[in-house]
Each structure stands twice: as structure tokens, then as C-alpha cells.
Design goal:
Distance between the termini: 40 Å
Shape: globular
Protein name: Peroxiredoxin
Organism: Thalassospira mesophila
Number of strands: 6
CATH superfamily of the largest domain: K homology (KH) domain
Number of domains: 2
Low-confidence stretches: none
Largest sheet: 3 strands, antiparallel
CATH topology of the largest domain: GMP Synthetase, Chain A, domain 3
Pfam family, one: OsmC
InterPro entries: KH_dom-like_a/b, OsmC/Ohr_fam, OsmC/Ohrsf
CATH class of the largest domain: Alpha Beta
Mean pLDDT: 96
Order of helices and strands: EEEHEEHHE
Structural class: alpha+beta
């Protein structure tokens, strides 16, 4: 896996993945050109885990209509300001969904499949929850 990050100006950078997809990152909150690198980490872990949950539920023939994942994180107060706690909350919507299958999908992602969350769990307390929405 490869990627490239290129400085544009001030604290703004573009990142290009090995697959050719790009993103703007910004270390200056006031300019607002893109998420910060730490926000990108949160988006990455939530994206990784959400992909797992959707994939597992689809393989289980669950009729999911929507999955939204909220992420809350806490950081150390002093440098390096690493994440100390990360919580992912999955909101799953669908028709006649089996709650046990949702629970299993979230658990499998957290414990077996999501490389990003398993890696970050080595440095921060990582927790998961879910709810079934009507």
C-alpha cells in the first residue's frame, strides 16, 4: 500500500492514495480547507468498521437500508495529543432486522476484521455500541 502527501500552502496538504483517490487535509482549523489528519484517522476507523458491518449484514441477508456511524474521541491534553478514547456508535436502519445479527456484525468488525480499529485499540480505549432505528 502506498500514498503521497503534498504540501499546497500554509498547513494545507493534498493526499493521494495508491488507488488514485485524493483528499485535502488542513492543520489550520480557521482556514477550513479540509479535515485535520487526526479527523482523518477517525473517519478512517469509522469507515473501515462501517464497511465491515454493512458487508457482514448483507452476507447475512439482512435488509439494511441505512447505516450511520457516529464517532466520539478524546485526546491527551499534552503533546503528543494522541487519542485516549474512541467510541463508535452504529445506527442501523432496515426492514425486519435481526438484532443478534447486528450485534454480531459490530463485534466481528471490532474483534476480527477492522484493521484500523484493531490497530488503534492498541493505543486508545476503543468501544462500540449500536442501535436499531425504525
Amino acid at each position: 500500500m502506498e500514498a503521497r502527501v503534498k504540501w499546497l500552502e500554509n498547513l494545507t496538504f493534498t493526499g493521494t492514495s495508491g488507488s488514485g483517490h485524493g483528499v485535502v487535509m488542513d492543520g489550520n482549523r480557521e482556514s477550513g480547507f479540509g479535515p485535520s489528519p487526526m479527523e482523518m484517522l477517525l473517519l478512517g476507523v469509522a469507515g473501515c468498521s462501517s464497511i465491515d458491518v454493512v458487508h457482514i449484514l448483507q452476507k447475512g441477508r439482512e435488509n439494511i437500508l441505512d447505516v450511520e456511524t457516529d464517532i466520539k474521541a478524546e485526546r491527551a491534553e499534552t503533546d503528543p495529543k494522541v487519542f485516549t478514547k474512541i467510541h463508535l456508535h452504529f445506527k442501523v436502519r432496515g426492514e425486519n432486522l435481526n438484532e443478534a445479527k447486528i450485534e454480531r456484525a459490530v463485534h466481528l468488525s471490532a474483534e476480527k476484521y477492522c484493521s484500523a480499529s484493531i490497530m488503534l485499540a492498541k493505543a486508545a480505549e476503543l468501544t462500540h455500541s449500536w442501535e436499531l432505528l425504525d
